[in-house]
Amino acid sequence: MRLSVPVVFALILTLTAASRPARADDDYRDCFKASTDAAQTETGVAVCTRLIKAGQWKGLDLARLLSNRAALYIKQDKLDLAMADLDRVVAIAPDYVFAYDNRGEVWRLRGNSAKAIAEYNKAIKIDPKFLSAYYDRGQTYEAMKDLDKARADYQAVLDKPGDGRPIDAWAKDQAKKALDRLANAAGTGGK
User: Fold this and answer.
1) N- or C-end of the chain: fewer Cβ atoms within 10 A?
2) Is the pLDDT of residue 42 over 50?
């Protein structure tokens, strides 16, 4: 059976189009995975940047890519680049809780505790089950030597159910370690 040139061309286009989304989805997931793996920071920025520049992702999908790249920039201590991405995220998806948590992290690392806490408060207002914001706010309070508020936030992480996200499990683990560390420090007179 011989296929006409238009049929062959149509088949090639169909196969090419069918293969493209799978690779794009893989890349999309690679951007997320890199944002949670310290060993992939450089390659993760490249993957996320390529996807962002491709222009194929819009709305919440684009916001997630930008937020993931911002998390990678934070790990690289490129806080201005991180904040620029996070500003874009907030403009695209004003209720994207991860953006506010990451913005809080930028402010915390810059030493501006008041702005960090304000961002964590926004995240908590948007999603009271977003446990990372409580943990991160607790870290900020701890750095400010307000240990009662730090303990309260760490305990809130353990007491709240979360939403089943990997970041919720991470926050619970970190909050338990923080409470143990504070209890041990109190037991040794803070030494």
Assistant:
1) N
2) yes
